[in-house]
Amino acid sequence: MNKSQKKSSPQLCGCGCGKKVKGALFARGHKNRHKSDLIKALCAGGYATARVEELGWNDDSTFNQHLKEYREGLAKKPLKVRLLSQQAA
Ligand SMILES: [Zn+2]
């Protein structure tokens, strides 16, 4: 989108995987993964709230929709299934 904003030094991917990325907050595909992780974290205990606000995703309609869907899905799934699907993701 904004090509004038060039970053020469790589930084670590925002999802916490340790991968170095250039000119972006996340490695390819990791943004969505991080969203899923935060949604799960929010549902599990809420410590992720600050991170979500930091990224501005608390105002992200897609994020909120996914959070809502996950919460609704969560109510129907037993804990064991949730943990297994978390590992596979
Ligand atoms: Zn990553």
Describe the protein.
There is one protein chain. α1 packs across α3. β1 and β2 form a beta hairpin. The protein has a domain of 59 residues. The two termini are 28 Å apart. With 89 residues, the chain is mainly alpha-helical. The chain is built from four helices and two strands; from the N terminus they run ββαααα. Helices cover 54% and strands 4% of the residues. A two-stranded antiparallel sheet has the order 1-2. It binds zinc ion. The site of zinc ion has 7 residues, from loops.
In short:
This protein is mainly alpha-helical. Helix content is 54%, strand content 4%. It is elongated and about 45 Å long.
Features:
54% helix, 4% strand, 89 residues, two-stranded antiparallel sheet, mainly alpha, binds zinc ion, 2 strands, 4 helices
* Mean pLDDT score: 82
What fraction strand? under 5%
Instruction: Please give the number of β-strands.
Output: 2
- Structural class designation: mainly alpha
Strand order of the largest sheet: 1-2
Percent of residues in helices comes to 40-55%
Please compute the radius of gyration using only Cα atoms.
Answer: 15 Å
Tell me the span between the first and last alpha carbons.
28 Å
**Global geometry:** elongated
Report the uncertain regions: none
How many strands, what sense, and barrel or not for the largest sheet? 2 strands, antiparallel
String of helices and strands: EEHHHH
DSSP summary: helix tally: 4
Hetero compounds:
zinc ion
